[in-house]
Amino acid sequence: MTRVIHTGDTHIGYRQYHSPVRRQDFLDAFDAVVDDALDDDVDAVVHAGDLFHDRRPDLPDLLGTIATLRRLDDAGIPFLAVVGNHESTRGGQWLDLFERLGLATRLGAEPVVVGDVAIYGLDHVPVSRRDDLEYAFEPHDADHAALVAHGLFEPFAYADWDTETVLAESTVDFDAMLLGDNHTPDRAEVAGTWVTYPGSTERASASEREGRGYNIVTFGDASDGDDPVGIRRRALDTRPFVFVSVDLREGEGEGRVRERVREHDLTDAVVLVEVTGDGDPVTPAAIEEFTTERGALIARVTDRRTVETDAEIDVSFADPEDAVRERIAGMGLSEAAIEVDEAVRAETVADSNVREEVKTRIEERLDDLDAFVGAADDGEANGEPVDGSDGDGADAETPDGDGVDDETPDGDPDAHGPVNEPDPTDGQVSMEDYL
Asked: Catalytic amino acids?
């Protein structure tokens, strides 16, 4: 029997809420996964992409990651990984650097055999390049085979990748697909193959309310009565998040919000307070100060209510950018221009990734010239939604599935298979220059 830890979406370096403590939390969560790998003496740690949050991680994050990987290497436990969309570059990948240091193996079309399992890899591939993929993998003589991949696969939420197509067109029969990108842990059986996400190891957005963790995947001998593939989820002890919902009745205000906050243990927690209802106005800053005084690491207050003025202007306390989106929707911009605006302003796209994110979105629109025609160009600059929009100037929800991933650019596999071919002409700073 072969046992591996299946993890991913560690997003090391993510300075969530602009907090250096939260940034350290993401590295600590990865370190905790490795602690468990050492304690359990697993056969390998498999990482399904987005090891880093940013394609140009800071030096402390790189050094911390190297120190953690060295602990695995010292114990003789291989670290096998693919490249995710958050960390990918058009040149060499950080995973390649770790491989050169002897601390990791970058998975691809050739099998890496661990115990009785041949493990392959498929880096993140932009939607625009997937039609040309051949899913050509080298043969193996192991008892089992697993594909590690990064993307949003069916039948899970936000899917844009046909799992049955991958399985049918692959030159290898896989017993399991070990996936990353969707931060919600889940599993399903597709065409006789187990397909699973371990979820992220730290909460990368407020939508990730459930506890974080990873998978332990076992490959057994069916002739001995074992299940060919066993998937078990294990929880991680990560930074506590406290979610406080307050529905204010008429006449209720900050006093009621404070009362609800007092009901929770806030020690060293990230506290997210959501206010709804018909009560009196509240001052978010005052509630946040009250919450941090009671021991919270970080406090954020969101007032979901709107208020009408004599000028009949709705102001959303929940999302000030709603007003920006509404104004953009009335400017008659093309769909492509709206997507560019969305990419530039999105908090979920790391600053150093914005340029590539914009480039990717435009490249994927090149075959659709109508996307570059705004309402102003066709005589409809009257504030009505542009064709294909929902009236707010942007998609109501970016179909990422992981809370932080807008589809970021390639530099993963080439257009003809699962193996990366770096583009040395990209103009990216080399790893050597970076360090």
From this structure: 86
Which stretches of the chain score pLDDT less than 70?
Answer: 222-226, 306-336, 338-339, 342-343, 345-353, 355-356, 360-361, 363-435
Q: Which residues pair with 52 in a beta bridge?
A: 12
- Cβ pair 142, 70 in contact under 8 A: no
Q: Extract the runs of DSSP E, i.e. beta strands, from 181-269.
A: 186-190, 193-197, 213-219, 229-235, 241-248
Q: What domains sit in the chain, N to C, each tagged with a CATH number?
A: 2-235 (3.60.21.10), 240-319 (3.30.70), 330-408 (no CATH)
Measuring CA to CA, which residue among 237, 238, 299, 296 is closest to residue 269?
Answer: 296
What SS3 class is residue 241?
A: strand
Model pTM above 0.85: no
Q: Which helix (H) or strand (E) segment is 301 a member of? A: strand 298-303
* Backbone torsions φ then ψ of 106, nearest 5 degrees: -85, 120
Q: How many residues does the chain have?
A: 435
Share of the chain above pLDDT 70, in %: 70
Q: Rounded CA gap, 361 and 338, in Å? A: 11
CA–CA gap between residue 22 and residue 18 (Å, rounded): 8
> pLDDT of 313-357, one tens digit each?
444 444 445 456 555 655 656 666 766 776 676 555 666 567 667
Directed axis angle between helix 254-262 and helix 284-293, to 10°?
A: 30
- Burial per residue of 297-306, b for 16 or more beta-carbon CB atoms within 10 angstroms, e otherwise: bbbbbebebe
SS (H, E, C) 147-173: EEEECCECCCCCCCECHHHHHHHCCCC
pLDDT single digits (tens) 159-210: 999 999 999 999 999 999 999 999 999 999 999 999 999 999 999 999 999 9
Handedness of CA 361, 403, 338, 91 (dihedral sign): negative
Residue 19 phi/psi, 5° resolution? -105, 125
- Pairing assessment for the beta strands 315-316 and 306-307 based on DSSP bridges: antiparallel
Please give the backbone phi and psi of residue 166, each rounded to the nearest 5 degrees, phi first: -60, -45
